[in-house]
Amino acid sequence: MLLVPLAISYLLNLDLIKSTFKSISRMTLQLAFIGIFLTFIFDLNSTLLNLLWILLMLVVASHILS
Questions:
Q1: What does the longest C-alpha to C-alpha distance in the chain come to?
Q2: How many Å apart are CA 20 and CA 23, to the nearest integer?
Q3: I need a surface site. Which of 7, 22, 33, 66 has the fewest CB within 10 A?
Q4: How confident is the model at residue 38 (pLDDT cuts 50, 70, 90)?
Q5: What predicted TM-score, i.e. pTM, was given to this entire model?
Q6: What is the CA 1 to chain-centroid distance, rounded?
Q7: Span between the terminal Cα atoms of the chain, in Å
């Protein structure tokens, strides 16, 4: 999916390849860490903790959308 923007950046000499790779690396690390964190939270199998986490995600999402 990311090959198309990289190819366009290269062909148009936009000099964005380095920053794009940094962004891809950062995104991959963030997704890996949140995956590990969510696995840990949901493996605890605590209904209260899971509900609090879901509530937090809903509050943050509603704040971002408003």
A1: 52
A2: 5
A3: 66
A4: confident
A5: 0.63
A6: 16
A7: 29
